[in-house]
User: Fold this.
Amino acid sequence: MKHVVVGTAGHIDHGKTSLVKALTGTDTDRLPEEKARGITIDLGFAFLEEPDGLTIEIVDVPGHERFVKNMLAGVGGIDLVMLVIAADEGVMPQTREHLAICSLLRIKTGLIALTKADLVEPDWIELVRDDVSRLLEPTFLAGAPLVPVSVKTGAGLQELRGVLAGLARGVPAKSTERTPRLPIDRVFTVRGFGTVVTGTLTDGTLVVDDRVEVYPRGVVSKVRGLQTHGHTVEKASAGQRTAVNLQGVERAVIERGDVVAPSGALVPTLLADATLELLKDAPRPLKTRDRVRFHVGTQEVMARVLLVDRAELEPGQVSYGRFRLEGPIVALPGDRFVIRSYSPIITIGGGTVLDIAPPRFKRKAPALLAHLLLLEQGSPAEVVEEHLKHAGAAGAHAADLRARTPYGPERLRALLDELVKAGSIVAVDREWYLHREANDRLRAETLGLLESFHAENPLRAGISREELRSRAGNAQERVFGQLLASLEAEGVVRTDKDQVRLGSHSIRLSPEQQRVVSGLDADFLQAGAAPPSPEEALAKLGVKGNERHELFQLLVAERRLVRAKESLYFHADALQTIQDKLVAYLREKKEIGPGDMKDLLGITRKYAIPLMEYFDSQRVTVRQGERRVLRGG
Ligand SMILES: Nc1nc2c(ncn2[C@@H]2O[C@H](COP(=O)(O)OP(=O)(O)OP(=O)(O)O)[C@@H](O)[C@H]2O)c(=O)[nH]1
Ligand SMILES: [Mg+2]
Assistant:
């Protein structure tokens, strides 16, 4: 079962809607205003089913110059165009504009219906045919079939239908591995069902019960039901006109231009980089900061264009542009777009979206041009690598790469695996990736920081992990964790609790430093429950300083000296002895007061009170008024 979407195109009143009706039996002009004025205002939809299972879905567009924006919303997803030209009028302004739009959107194929053939003589038809060939010569429709028809006499209709079906059969099948996207062209409510949206599914497949999101609104919903050309289905595939019944969504919160896609799969953006071409017959050059109407999918948003490598883009020229959008768009690289000038409202150009999360660049930087060239012409793997290169030391989450590339989750996973294998990127974990260069830079920086830390603090065992991370450019937590883990696995770095050091680092003391450290150790041990102040202890060894002295701190870091409060330090072994005595005492006497403590240890109140508080804090004892009891005793 094949589905092909055909769009009409052409000047107002040239007979598009009449032709669709003659082919399908459906009058696509449904609005009362359309009936009253005899013109098409908004998109209309009809379909043809061929006996062999081919379904041709037709989007009928308005020809009026004021409704080109509606036409643009309709032709985004079409496979082929039926350009309608009235034989009596020939080529007219919207014939050209619609043709230009189809070219800009890279519609690949189509045919020409020369309508109202009953109104002209046969040799006139030949003149118009020549005219039309000249117009189409430089376009994708060069040499396309042209069929004179009349809905009044029925002449040519059979032939047209045959040509249409032939072209439709030649349209290649679409990939369904990419992320499904449905740019919405209509929203309405159906009694008993709720909100229904329609559009042409551009990629992937949608299945009933899928969890979806309406972008850029952030409205999360579920596919309650699906229809394709009037039939209820379980699944819709890329290229099909699809109606989606959305569960629990108010009609009023959605509009044409929004996109239905899996929840979390896309990211709306206000900035996009793109290739940019100005039509040959654009009335004037495009200048940086010009305000334009940006059409992508079924959306229209105002935007300012920033030219990348020149101040002005001349008609017929192709370059790159950065678009600052005045409202969020939902697009993926590879999407074609059209721009129209703000005033007069005419189509002037278009291009291909290259990046929806562009990195910062200095304006007109040559590097930006090289970057865009790579995004335009590089292989998918090169493009993914380029994004990671620009993600820098922070790396990127796989979900961000998914929303920023058009490949679909499985293809992207394969590309990432391939790049990891080639050594161009590093997998921080299954979801987070880092470019090799950023990884190497961070690694070198971290090792350099450790080296200079050790050089400046030879008596400190290591630096705190958090301090190291913040000095290393405030490295991203997951990235830094992974780096430390791999450095540790290599034996280059050791971590102990939250201290990090180089594997090669050890504290080496001079004989003089060793004398002081040993002296402090011995003095505090000997002093037991009545230790000296740090100043006194250092002074006794001929050293000026207080507890902040590096040799004193060395003993603290090694937990040989333990701080009870402020500047009062006890030797760790002495504390253990005191604790044993205290516990034995409490086992027997059940409680102890400050006076008993003084007697037990032969010390003054100056030491007794801090020691009692210390053992409270160590959860050895519990305070009861002035007295202590064993915790849990
Ligand atoms: N004589 C003759 N008149 C035709 C033929 N096809 C269409 N018409 C007439 O041309 C007028 C316009 O036809 P539509 O089908 O509404 O034209 P359209 O291209 O859909 O117009 P818009 O959608 O407004 O751009 C109508 O009055 C039709 O009856 C034809 O083959 N022969
Ligand atoms: Mg019409």
About this structure: The radius of gyration is 38 Å. The pocket of magnesium ion (ligand 2) is lined by residues 16-17, 40, 60 (CB under 6 Å). The mean pLDDT is 93. The first helix runs from residue 16 to 24.
